[in-house]
Automatic annotation (TrEMBL):
Belongs to the HisA/HisF family. One of its GO terms (molecular function) is 1-(5-phosphoribosyl)-5-[(5-phosphoribosylamino)methylideneamino]imidazole-4-carboxamide isomerase activity. It catalyses: 1-(5-phospho-beta-D-ribosyl)-5-[(5-phospho-beta-D-ribosylamino)methylideneamino]imidazole-4-carboxamide = 5-[(5-phospho-1-deoxy-D-ribulos-1-ylimino)methylamino]-1-(5-phospho-beta-D-ribosyl)imidazole-4-carboxamide. The active site is at residues 11, 133. InterPro entries: Aldolase_TIM (IPR013785), His_biosynth (IPR006062), HisA/PriA (IPR023016), HisA_bact_arch (IPR006063), Isoase_HisA-like (IPR044524), RibuloseP-bd_barrel (IPR011060). Gene3D superfamilies: Aldolase class I (3.20.20.70). It is found in: Cytoplasm. It comes from the Bacteria. Its EC number is 5.3.1.16. It holds the Pfam family His_biosynth. This is 1-(5-phosphoribosyl)-5-[(5-phosphoribosylamino)methylideneamino] imidazole-4-carboxamide isomerase. Pathway: Amino-acid biosynthesis; L-histidine biosynthesis; L-histidine from 5-phospho-alpha-D-ribose 1-diphosphate: step 4/9. Keywords: Amino-acid biosynthesis, Cytoplasm, Histidine biosynthesis, Isomerase.
Amino acid sequence: MSACTLYPAIDVRDGRVVRLLQGDYEQETRYDGTPLAIAERYAQAGADWLHLVDLDAARAGGYTLGPLLASIKAATSLRVQTGGGVRSEQEVESILTAGAERVVIGSMAVRETGQVLAWIRRFGAERITIALDVRQDVDGIWTLPVAGWTQDSGIRFEPLVQTFAEAGVRHLLCTDIARDGMLVGPSIALYRQLSAWAPDMDIQASGGIRGVDDIQAAAAAGCRGAVLGKALLEGRFTLEQALCGAVAC
């Protein structure tokens, strides 16, 4: 098992750090501390990366966290991957200019795949993270909701992953919506399948992680990264414990 890069996550809505339950905007938990203060705390604990999400923009479009991103970059040495509602090449360029190492593209990657592949050709595969958020229907088929998980795209999951793999996409973040915020463990079978479909991609596990054992299980399933959200914010484990476990120290 190789080392797993950890991405402590900060989801921002109305300027506050929040978590949604299974992507439901009506089921929000707010956490103490400003987004900048929490980012600084993660940096002090040894994080190399931060996963920053604009929840307002994820539903309405129009990324709004540029000033916060610039403040985080000025105050810490964190590398940041960030997104939420990114819908244009100009927004990608603006976010990268503000200091992000990678821009996370979600709904557009599903709805306008060709356009997003053009962005990757322009900015490079290291500067874009594709985020595919999936939900399993009653027949066991993985579907791809978009617009902050509020609409079903009608796009099939496996062919889309294969399209990205063939195009040379490097970073793929995949969230099982049913597990997001539920603290029930990550979707290991899903990540094994993704690793089989796209063995050269750096897959990031997201949703359900509740402890160091889950990070290690995701890495064993082929993930090279893990996004840490609710469990970390609620102190179920420390970032120091997670970093140590991720490299099997």
